[in-house]
């Protein structure tokens, strides 16, 4: 571990690993995020009563625009793109609103709201980021990273148990598959060397998948039914409709998405012992909003940064944006070929859950490191941390506590990320003192605790 707090980096931001190794590392990123990304389409489609053909199309569009957005995010396109190793995909943040609005008013209203809210909200935040940046010190962004990891843990546990609603939820078979993936991934990362350590998560998923096939729990029927090639159809669900309530609802959720993206970018650059630059923040937020709006025109749900892939970056020490660009290319190809995409989605939930459980913990740990590197754990900052995480975890575990609020407000405050971020923003702004660095840059780091027993509240 270098002295500046950065992790041991195997490949830096602009490094290009050998072709075969880079391809395998890219596949590893895809393997970790493809199931939850496509799960959003399955869940929303089920809630709105979509046909089997429509479900397949929604999954295809999620993969296609996740890939395109990842390519733009990693390689850049003018002012759009952070040029950081950020994998883009459809977030569970949008599931509740998309399901409720889609069931009541149709998917055309959902996509119309996303088209407007994405480009306006995240475009405005990115454009004015210079003014907004002071409200996102490392203490705040670190807390956002922590809560993203922590609230992914229950999701990971549900997957590890077989998926919510599964008849065999919590069975020994599911727990065994998840445990196998987790054990192999951790063991190879801690004791392996070279490419074995770098591909530890992929090897764990592959071993779990082979075991699942041997147990007869992998269903290949959807692969045979899927077409080889299919192109996007912008009129699939009709002309987008623009409902004010739906637009405002998604505007709130894009604020959540922006905070997640800020946190994820901070989690990635924390591996180098630094915070993202203004240009990186701005380009990342532009990608979130613009690609979500473009995708909505073709029937894709909003895309945002994927937190579990931030965990992979920190877990493997591979920061190369070109590796993640390969993952984006793979996702785009999967989106053009429903048959190949169907093959990827045959990965059982339990296999995927073992990997995500590890990644969620790594994301939370990277957030703790970001805070520890940049802020003292004094009384002021401990209060900010305690209140922000308490509210965020509280609403994550007991969302029904806000059931008496007006519907629009309930949608807003029941998002753990936004509640944690807003709490941290407000407390950090009004609390006396500042979120001070560990030590002044002009001074040497302290060698030990102060000789007095008092608490420094400065």
From TrEMBL:
Location of the region described as Disordered in the Swiss-Prot/TrEMBL record: 437-458
Alphabetical keyword list: Cell membrane, Membrane, Transmembrane, Transmembrane helix, Transport
Domain of life assignment: Archaea
Transmembrane segments: 22-45, 57-78, 84-103, 135-153, 174-192, 198-231, 283-306, 318-337, 349-371
GO molecular function: xanthine transmembrane transporter activity
Location within or outside the cell: Cell membrane
Family under the similarity heading: Belongs to the nucleobase:cation symporter-2 (NCS2) (TC 2.A.40) family.
Protein name from the UniProt record: NCS2 family nucleobase:cation symporter-2
Organism encoding this protein: Halolamina salifodinae
């Amino acid at each position: 571990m270098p002295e500046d707090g950065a992790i041991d980096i195997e490949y830096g931001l602009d490094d290009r690993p050998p072709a075969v190794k880079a391809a395998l590392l890219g596949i590893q990123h895809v393997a970790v995020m493809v199931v939850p990304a496509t799960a959003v389409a399955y869940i929303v489609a089920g809630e709105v009563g979509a046909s089997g053909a429509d479900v397949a199309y929604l999954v295809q569009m999620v993969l296609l625009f996740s890939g395109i957005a990842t390519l733009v995010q990693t390689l850049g396109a003018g002012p759009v793109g952070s040029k950081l190793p950020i994998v883009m995909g459809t977030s569970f943040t949008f599931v509740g609103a998309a399901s409720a609005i889609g069931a009541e008013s149709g998917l055309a209203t959902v996509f119309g709201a996303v088209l407007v809210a994405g480009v306006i909200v995240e475009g405005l935040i990115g454009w004015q980021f210079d003014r907004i940046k002071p409200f996102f010190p490392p203490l705040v962004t670190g807390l956002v990273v922590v809560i993203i990891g922590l609230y992914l843990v229950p999701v990971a546990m549900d997957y590890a148990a077989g998926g919510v609603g599964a008849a065999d939820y919590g069975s020994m078979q599911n727990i065994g598959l998840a445990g196998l993936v987790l054990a192999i991934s951790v063991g190879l990362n801690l004791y392996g060397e070279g490419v074995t350590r770098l591909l530890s998560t992929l090897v764990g998923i592959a071993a779990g998948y082979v075991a699942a096939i041997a147990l007869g729990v992998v269903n290949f029927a959807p692969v045979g039914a899927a077409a080889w090639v299919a192109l996007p159809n912008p009129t699939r669900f009709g002309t987008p409709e623009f409902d004010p309530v739906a637009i405002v609802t998604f505007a709130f959720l894009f604020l959540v998405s922006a905070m997640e993206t800020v946190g994820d970018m901070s989690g990635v650059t924390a591996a180098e012992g630094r915070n993202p630059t203004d240009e990186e923040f701005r380009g990342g937020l532009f990608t979130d909003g613009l690609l979500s709006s473009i995708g909505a025109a073709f029937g894709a749900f909003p895309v945002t940064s994927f937190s579990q892939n931030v965990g992979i970056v920190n877990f493997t020490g591979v920061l190369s944006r070109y590796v993640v660009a390969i993952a984006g290319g793979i996702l785009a190809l999967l989106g053009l070929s429903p048959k190949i995409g169907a093959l990827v989605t045959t990965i059982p939930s339990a296999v995927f859950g073992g990997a995500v459980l590890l990644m969620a913990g790594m994301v939370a740990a990277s957030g703790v490191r970001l805070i520890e590197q940049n802020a003292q754990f004094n009384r002021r900052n401990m209060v900010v941390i305690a209140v922000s995480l308490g509210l965020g975890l509280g609403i994550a575990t007991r969302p029904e506590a806000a059931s008496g609020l007006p519907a629009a407000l309930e949608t807003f405050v029941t998002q753990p990320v936004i509640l944690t971020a807003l709490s941290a923003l407000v407390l950090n702004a009004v609390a006396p003192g500042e979120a001070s660095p560990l030590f002044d840059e002009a001074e040497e780091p302290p060698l030990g605790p102060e000789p007095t027993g008092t608490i420094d509240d400065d």
